[in-house]
């Protein structure tokens, strides 16, 4: 499958089976993140892989809304960064997340991006502080997002190239 096909088929999957994704697939997803482009090749990110069901259930409360799928996920990858490494850490982390999202899809693994930066947990804390207390990442590190992973329990239709908003493409000037 070529990259455009992977992109067309990539959908945010929020319902998972109880099946494990397997260590080999998880490793490939993490490698895709580590191979991501970053400003001056600084790679400011650190990934926290969470597979313990109890922790995933607690993480499902890290957002006031939009993180419940973690309760049924096989695992999650929490993407954090040291902002002292580069001022474009959010962009670098986003590229890593996008690569992992695409790799998961290419392997038949469902995934969903759960924004963490600038979001609030169910208990009123920031999502970052909630997850920092749960996962113990350093005080100077910032949270970008969580990628939930699991074998899909739903099948969504692929995107269609004919439906792309091509009016958003401008040539030479706006």
Task: Give an overview of the whole structure.
Keywords: Oxidoreductase. The chain is of the alpha+beta class. It starts with a helix and ends in a 24-residue tail after the last strand. The protein has a single domain (3-9, 23-152), classed as NADH Oxidase (3-Layer(aba) Sandwich), CATH 3.40.109.10. Strands 1-2-4-3 form a 4-stranded antiparallel β-sheet, sandwiched between helices. The longest helix is centred in the middle third of the chain and has 18 residues, at 89-106. It has 5 helices and 4 strands, in the order ααβαβαβαβ. The protein is globular, with a radius of gyration of 17 Å.
Residue share in helix: 25-40%
Note the overall shape.
globular
Mean pLDDT: 97
Radius of gyration using CA atoms only: 17 Å
CATH class: Alpha Beta
CATH fold-level name: NADH Oxidase
Tell me the name of the CATH homologous superfamily. Answer: NADH Oxidase
Biggest sheet layout = 4 strands, antiparallel
Q: What ranges have pLDDT less than 50 throughout 5 or more consecutive residues?
A: none
Order of helices and strands: HHEHEHEHE
Number of domains: 1
Structural class category: alpha+beta
> How is the largest sheet built, in terms of strand order?
1-2-4-3
Ends apart, CA distance between termini = 34 Å
CATH architecture: 3-Layer(aba) Sandwich
């Amino acid at each position: 499958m070529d990259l455009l096909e992977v992109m067309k088929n990539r959908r945010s999957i929020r319902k998972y089976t109880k099946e494990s994704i397997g260590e080999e697939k998880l490793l490939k997803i993490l490698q895709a993140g580590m191979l991501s482009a970053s400003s001056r090749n600084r790679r400011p990110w650190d990934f926290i892989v969470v597979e313990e069901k109890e922790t995933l259930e607690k993480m499902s409360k890290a957002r006031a809304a939009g993180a419940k799928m973690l309760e049924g996920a096989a695992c999650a990858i929490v993407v954090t960064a040291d902002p002292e490494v580069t001022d474009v850490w959010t962009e670098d982390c986003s590229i890593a997340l996008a690569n992992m999202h695409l790799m998961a899809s290419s392997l038949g693994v469902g995934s969903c991006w759960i924004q963490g930066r600038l979001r609030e947990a169910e208990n009123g804390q920031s999502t970052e502080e909630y997850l920092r207390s749960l996962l113990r990442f350093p005080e100077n590190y910032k949270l970008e997002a969580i990628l939930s992973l699991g074998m899909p329990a739903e099948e969504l239709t692929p995107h269609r190239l004919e439906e792309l908003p091509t009016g958003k493409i401008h040539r030479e000037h706006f």
